[in-house]
Write a structure and sequence with these properties.
heterodimer, A: mainly alpha, MetI-like fold, 14 helices, B: mainly alpha, two-stranded antiparallel ribbon
Chain lengths: ~270, ~300
Amino acid sequence: MKRLSFGKSFTFLLMCLLAFIMLYPFAFMINTSFKSKAQFFGAPGHSLLSWQKVFTALPVGRQLINSTIVCAGAILIILAVSSLAGFALAKLTFRLSPIFFLGIVGAMLIPLQSIIIPAYINASHLHLLTGYWGAILLYSALGTPFATFLMTSYFRGLPDDLIEAAVVDGLSYTAVFRKIALPLAIPALVTIVVLQFIQIWDDLLVGLLFLQNQDYRTITVGLGALAAGRTTDIPVLMAGSIISAIPAIIVYLIFQKQLVNGLTAGIGK
Amino acid sequence: MALSVVSKQSSLHRQRRKTGFLFSLPALGLVGAFLGIPIYQALYFSMTKWDGIIAEWIGPSTYINQFKSPIFWRVIENNALLLLAVPVAIILPMGIAYVLNDKIAGWKIFRTIYFLPTAISWVVIGMVAMRFFAQEGLLNDLLKGIGLGFIKTDLLSSERGALLAVGITFIWSMVGTNSIIFLTGMATLDISLYEAARMDGASSFRIFRSITLPQLKRFIQFSFIITVISAFTALFTLIFVMTGGGPGFGTTTLEFFVYQSAFSRGNFGTGAMLGVILFFIMAILGSAQLLLVRNKE
């Protein structure tokens, strides 16, 4: 009995050590952001200087708004097209629907880097790089395959009788989708929102290329550009990091369960 | 009367098919326009000399020339070396999930903490990691702190060292994701088997190997796929922020090389070709995985 509890406390300590390793970067970020450049290099004490400087180094307010616009636009498009397609492919099957399903969901296998160059040139020909639209549309296209997969599996769980009964009662399929299927699918829709929010909010590559106008940059892109510019003012970068990370951390803490559901949805039965 | 029921039925069926077709068009159109067409364009442009404006047709010899380039093989070698991180990024989380599944004190808090990096951008992770591994960074402070100050590391200044630093950071950020996958898997385990095995006097290790592992197969496969895909396609940002692909080509992976060729050097044709090669590597790995799963079942 004694040996067992020794083993248990040892494992517990090991888990604490691991938690420390996982949390250390956050502690470092917070601690460093409250130092001036000189204090970072060894001078004692803390200050708010870096938190003042970050607002001139990065147009924080503007970029947070940009991140919100890009995320909201892309997520709305993903929700619209994936719930429609998911309902159709699960419940309104037609001759080509297996091919449509393969075409949409199979695109998950295409790595972003494989299409980004032609997609970039196409978007530049269509004048989509100067505003938000290029990034919003590419993020939408990248999120749609998995979202459609999720929605199709979700709608497959709805009983056919439910839909047929409503149709026999005189409802059109569009009305069935809007009034019956969609309200029932809210948990799946929330999972998609959480998953996509974190993905798009945290992304660098698409934003770096598709948001050419500096005034349209998201916070993550702004921060990435600042960091790659070999800025030596680490405390300022850390303050910026904290600002950029907070919205995603809040969403994570509230919607952890949905995030886990979304992550493990691909395992199947 | 019977006829009108039949015709109403068939008109309903027609309406259903038509609605289904119309409903799935927007998704197909979006994916086709932004992912489907570009992958075909990439295939075409991969055989051209292209500066982003004028593309001059060259043919499949572009691939042969690339395969003759030592830099290309250096990049592939980097990718291969990064794959060495995959087993660690799977086995470590498996142990963590095993412990958490025993519902040790505070397991919910531990779970939340380990999974936290999932919410954090690679930009932020890369910036902190850079400070951690730097010559005047935390790693050396830590070594000094535990009396190992004579081992003064400077990982980011050597090619292999920088790759090691990228690999360690990659593992750090994958631990949570894979732990969650295994934790989900362990929640589905058949408890009666454990009781039977304990009654028969099987050791913990024996139980883990003969009962837990086989039941977790599906989850191990899933986490393997996710980790390999991430190793090939999710590290652009980390490398961009942490090392810029250097020193030399020390941390240039295939996905980073795509970006570098096109957007730093203006060789859009080469970039497109590297993207196509990446696509085929992922497709081959994907189908190999699928084949393995099919054969075993």
